[in-house]
Amino acid sequence: MRKSLFSILLLFFCLGCSTVPLTGRKQLSLIPSSQINSLSFQSYDDVLKESKLSNNKQQVNLVKKVGQNISSAVEKYMKQNGLEEHIEGFQWEFNLIQDDEMINAWCMPGGKVAFYTGIMPICEDEAGVAVVMSHEIAHAIAEHGNERMSQQLALQLGGSALSVALNQQPQLTQQLAMAAFGLGAQVGVLLPYSRSHESEADELGIYFMAMAGYDPKEAIPFWQRMDAKGGQRPPEFLSTHPEPENRIKNIEKAIPKAMKYKNQAG
Ligand SMILES: [Zn+2]
Q1: Is 124 left (phi over 0), alpha (psi -120 to 50) or beta?
Q2: Largest CB tally within 10 Å, which of 124, 164, 179, 265?
Q3: Ligand 1 (single-atom ion) residues, CB below 5 Å
Q4: How far is the CA of 104 from the centre of ligand 1 (A)?
Q5: 4 or 111: which carries more pLDDT confidence?
């Protein structure tokens, strides 16, 4: 049983492989992005319907402005470097949800971003918002949602055809999708981002910040503030990620490369 599962996984791996832009890591990617995006857009609408949007105009505008800056810079870079397949079908959207208890933000596949008001004090200013925004956008550009969902589907459904599963088990699919997109708490399925995904989002994130003209060094004091906030209910960022010191070391290592992207952006 175990052995056959592994052969199936291996087969999936050979058939459904793609490459993360900029880092070059190979990943499992079984679900067509059009399908992932439509699941994502549906989930995003559901979350927004169930949530109260912030009416703090200043903060709402800041989230939208930074989101625009970073997404445009990333799109421009992808197009100029023949990587546009990674943003195909994206429909960017940036919203701020009123919930002071939630120290969180996420970006679902296809560019659907939400910040919670609870993270705004840790962001402090535009640069802090840019750190979080670019980290979350990096999860979407690196297609971590597709990868996580592919892994879960391969594990849970074994050999049954994925297309059949996606069409005939809508509830399971929706639950997996929400969990894979980083919203596990909402459906009771916790599926934290792995350390490798967190490190990759940190690295890509500071490149994206730099592309949009922000100073990637701002990521360091932000993560120090986030770390200090730790406490009994760790935010998404703190639940699975590398030790804070390692995280900061990794970011420091990537800064020289990030500065090159910044200079290219002019
Ligand atoms: Zn993350």
Answers
A1: left
A2: 179
A3: 201
A4: 10
A5: 111
Q: 14 pLDDT exceeds 50? A: no
Give residue 235 CA to ligand 1 midpoint distance, Å: 10
* Domain range list for the chain: 2-265
Q: How does residue 28 score in pLDDT terms, banded at 50, 70 and 90?
A: confident
Distance 110 CA to ligand 1 centre (A): 16
CA distance 266 to 260: 10
Q: Which span out of 9-13, 24-28, 71-75, 164-168 was modeled with the highest average pLDDT?
A: 71-75
pLDDT of residue 108: 93
Taking each continuous run of H as one helix and of E as one strand, the counts in the chain are 13, 5
pTM of the predicted structure, to 2 decimals: 0.84
Q: How far is the CA of 135 from the centre of ligand 1 (A)?
A: 6
